[in-house]
Specification:
Layout lengths: L4 E6 L6 E6 L2 E7 L1 H4 L9 H11 L8 E4 L4 H7 L2 H4 L3 H31 L4 E6 L7 E2 L11
Parallel strand pairs: 1-4, 4-5
Antiparallel strand pairs: 1-2, 2-3, 5-6
Helix pairs in contact: 3-5
């Protein structure tokens, strides 16, 4: 039976971190700055991921799901709402730069998802969105489910 290996990532933003769950059991979690010495590191948490996988005796090819903490598709959907704002002259000056910014965010998000797909070729990529509750709530399909006794 193949283990369900979920790698949770907060990456490409301040305080990068990684967490690893195997069959629903938390193996560990770590902030990248604790390993690379860079305060508020925003790099991909390479040291953290390597450490977690090593602790579990796993390789990147064993990861079945990568849960990423950011859903850049929201920004692309927001672009569809901009034309309504363009009807008001006061909003027009803000709408065009905002559209450019959203496009940039979405393009970076797509590049990051391609990067994660290359790092973990056998994993399903899932984007998480926060709902004000902890922990991160996965987007459909669920990344993992909590088993209650």
């Amino acid at each position: 039976m193949t283990a369900d290996v979920v790698l949770g990532l907060c990456a490409y933003t301040h305080d990068s971190a990684a967490a690893l769950l195997v069959d629903g059991h938390l193996i560990g979690f770590v902030e990248e700055e604790r390993l690379d010495g860079v305060k508020h590191s925003k790099a991909y948490p390479a040291h953290g991921v390597a450490w977690l996988l090593d602790e579990a005796g796993l390789a990147p090819s064993d990861v079945t799901t990568v849960a990423y903490n950011f859903d850049g598709r929201r920004y692309l959907r927001a672009l569809g709402q901009l034309p309504a704002h363009l009807r008001q002259a006061a909003s027009r000056a803000r709408a065009v730069p905002r559209a450019r910014s959203f496009t940039t965010v979405h393009r970076r998000y797509q590049a990051r998802m391609r990067d994660l797909a290359e790092r973990f070729p056998h994993a399903r990529l899932s984007r998480c969105r926060t709902t004000g509750r902890m922990p991160c709530t996965p987007l459909p399909p669920p990344v993992w489910t909590t088993r209650r006794s």
